Amino acid sequence: MMIAENGYPRLHTLNISKDPLDDDGRPKRTGTMWTASAHIITAVIGSGVLSLAWAMAQLGWIAGPVVMILFSFVTYYTSTLLASCYRTGDPVTGKRNYTYMDAVKSSLGTLQGKLCGYVQQINLFGAAVGYTITTGVSMMAISHTNCIHRSGGSAAACSTDATPFIIAFGIIELVLSQIKGFGQLWWLSTVAATMSFTYSIIGLGLEIAKVAATRKVRGNLTGIRIGAAVTPIQKIRRVFQALGNIAFAYSYSIILIEIQDTIKSPPSEVETMKVANRFSVAVTTLFYMLCACFGYAAFGDSSPGNLLTATGLNPYWLLDVANVAVVLHLVGAYQVFSQPIFAFVEDQAARRFPDSRFVNKEIKIRLPGSGDKDTAGNRYYGLNMFRLVWRTGFVVVSTTISILVPFFNDIVGLLGAIGFWPLTVYFPIEMYIAGRKIVRWSGKWVLLKLLSMGCLMITVAAAAGSIAGIVDDLKASKGL
Fold this sequence. Notes:
Number of helices: 14
Radius of gyration: 23 Å
Number of domains: 1
CATH topology: Amino acid/polyamine transporter I
Shape: globular
CATH class: Mainly Alpha
Helix content: 55-70%
Strand order of the largest sheet: 5-7-6
Order of helices and strands: EEHHEEHHHHHHHHHEEEHHH
Distance between the termini: 44 Å
CATH superfamily: Amino acid/polyamine transporter I
Largest sheet: 3 strands, antiparallel
């Protein structure tokens, strides 16, 4: 990924300067249905897949697959609506919108565009926190697994505290966050995609191997049973939380417009994107169903919150490889999702304080390998004090929150809840209604509004379940 002029992610495409210009004067786009599908699948398949077996355990063999299929349908349908808003006016010749926020501004006005921007910023910050927790848990799992094998199978003497690993990850990101233009390293997306597929496929393979070894399918029709394990209230809370986990796993609307902006035309970007959406959601749903179902079949009611922290998956060294892949993926992913916030805040500060030396002055430090060059051709790093203080503060805050609330499933569920309704459902539906001038109280208008309201209720329930889970986990960690 690379960062666009307004600070939001934009996918890197290879453009040759000799190519003819596109309809907006920019270099001609080269993307196809296949490249768009690859971008979507790369964006969707990530750390969210690790919690699907746990989500299935809360819902059971009946509701679990049904809910996943419903989420895939809603995601596909609303993504198709969003794709139709890529151009303002005529879907073939209208003005192109380069980012999600641009599309919202064009369709719904500046106020809604700003609201979309705020929701995006919250989701991006939440992703930074979620990635920090996930990485800490994976690093802890590697240490814990190897400790058990060194001690001959005894887990009593092996630490299960993720805090040191979260701090270590925070220190790494503290350094990386100071690299100016880090988001413009186009290969970052390739590395992240490779790592995400690595740990996802390893996890699925280990699940299948465990089911084959035991020759037993665990689980039941209604999910984890009420009794000694969970109370009725906890069961309801966990079901709501599972909805948030599934929503998080399917979310990619935040970069859909950016993906569509890489597609060449003709044929129209909308038609190509519809096919890419259909293909990508189908592939993702199949993969997710396999991960969730085999994970639940392998572990039943005791399905782990994070698949790669499960005990009983062998060989353990392959599990370590998967967790290393998670760490490598999220080291880069943290920066990809944080750089837009960095760019947005720094741009706003520069506009508000144009004469401030603290905000705008750069101190040139000669540093081989840096991306900047002076007039003599020497490479240097431009140290900006505002950037140093602000980005350091951002990483410290996200790391501190991760230490205080290191609960993987609760955070993933909350992130899924926060982003699902506004970004995946509300804005696409409202933009479609405005762009197609759908008559108020007509049949289509009513159905779209009912879909939006239904998804809002799911979002509220998922958020409530995740927040309640965080509160319960905090009480348990403090012995209350």
